Amino acid sequence: MPDGNDGSESPSRLGRLLFGLGLALQASEDFRDMDDTVEYAESAGVPMPGLAAPFASGMMLVAGVGVALWRLPRLATGAVVTFLGVVTATMHDFWNADPDDRDGERLAFFGNLAMIGAALVFLRDAYR
What residues have CB less than 8 Å from 41, skipping those under 6 apart? Predict the structure, then answer.
């Protein structure tokens, strides 16, 4: 029986590939329009958004590729959990959003919550 560390279970491998690529592609979109990404971070009160936004996007890009390829899985999945935990609570706080933005922030919050759940499953697998 596979021990979970070699990525040999097909459903998990496919799930990790899709999850990791999704994260990496989203991060690459942030880089394509970094001015908007920085502006959004600034509007959420992120300190030093000109540094924080590119750093966070870079971290997500590298972590996503790490999950997809199952390289340094503890580091990659840990980075995803950390990133999503911080971003979900600070950037998508729909309970404080303007009424016009509340629905979009709520959707992003719950989408990130689902991704945190997936990342935690992969993090558990990384520690097997």
Answer: 49, 52, 53, 56, 91
